[in-house]
Amino acid sequence: MVYSEDSLCQSTLEQHHDQLLTKCYLLACDAVALDRQGSVDAATEGYRKVIKMCHELLDMEQTHRDELEQKLDKYVHRLDQLSRLQQASVYTKKTLSDAQENIKADAATNNNNNKSEESEEESEEEWEADIRFSLAKAQFAMDQAEVNEKKGFTEEALDYYSDAAELFLSSYRGTCVMNIL
Q1: Is 125 in contact with 103 (CB distance < 8 Å)?
Q2: CA distances from 79 to 40, 47, 151, 162, 175 (A)
Q3: Please, are residues 128 and 179 in contact by the beta-carbon 8 Å criterion?
Q4: What is the pLDDT of residues 128-160, one digit of tens each?
Q5: pLDDT at residue 9, as a whole number
Q6: How far apart, in Å, do the first and last CA atoms of the chain sit?
Q7: So what's the pLDDT on residue 179?
Q8: Which ranges constitute the DSSP H helices of 61-114?
C-alpha cells in the first residue's frame, strides 16, 4: 500500500496529538492528586506543565477546542488560587514572626520596670501587637480582594473584602477598648 506524503504527515501529526493529549491527561491527574494531598508546590508545578501542554494542544486542536479551553481555564484558575495561598502563607508567617519579635523585644525592655507595671505593660503591648497583626491580615485580605476583582474573580473578591472588613472592624474595636482602659 502506497501512502502519499500528506497522509503520512497527517498521520504523524495525529499520533503526536494523541500522545500529547494522553501525556497532558496523565499530568493533570497527577497535579489534581497532589493538590488533594496538600502538596502545594508539587501541584503548582504540575498545573504549570499541564497549562503549557494545553496551549500546545490548542495550537493543534480543531474539534474539541471548547472543552480544552474550559479545562485550561480551570487549571489556570486553580494555579492562581494556589499561588495566592502560597503568598498568603509566606506573608502570614512573616507578619506573625514580626509580631512575635516585637512582643519579645517589648517584653525584654520592660524587664527593668516594676513587676506590677511590667505585667500591665506586657498585656497592653501584647494587645497592641495583636491589633497590629490583625491590621496586617486585614490589609492583606484587602489587597487580595483587589487582585481578584481585577482578574474578574468576583466571588473570591467578595470573600476577601468580607474578611478584610471583619478584621478592620475587630482591630478598630480593639483600639477603642484599649483607649477606654
Answers
A1: yes
A2: 10, 6, 13, 23, 38
A3: no
A4: 777 778 788 888 888 888 888 888 888 888 888
A5: 63
A6: 95
A7: 45
A8: 65-110
Give the C-alpha separation, 82 to 96, whole Å: 21
- Identify the burial level of 24 via C-beta atoms within 10 angstroms of its C-beta, where 0-12 means exposed, 13-18 middle and 19 or more buried: buried
**HEC string of 116-147?**
HHHHHHHHHHHHHHHHHHHHHHHHHHHHHHHH
Place of cell 489534581: 32
pLDDT at 2 over 70: no
Stretch 147-176: mean pLDDT? 82
Say how far apart CA 13 and CA 61 lie, in whole Å: 11
Instruction: For cell 496523565, name the residue.
Output: 26
Between CA 95 and CA 168 the distance in angstroms is 16
The Cα–Cα gap between 32 and 29 comes to 5
Give residue 121's pLDDT: 63
In whole angstroms, give the CA distance from residue 121 to residue 105: 13
Residues 6+ apart with CB under 8 A from 84: 144, 147
pLDDT digits (tens, 9 = 90+) for 14-63: 788 788 888 988 999 999 898 888 888 899 999 999 999 988 888 886 66
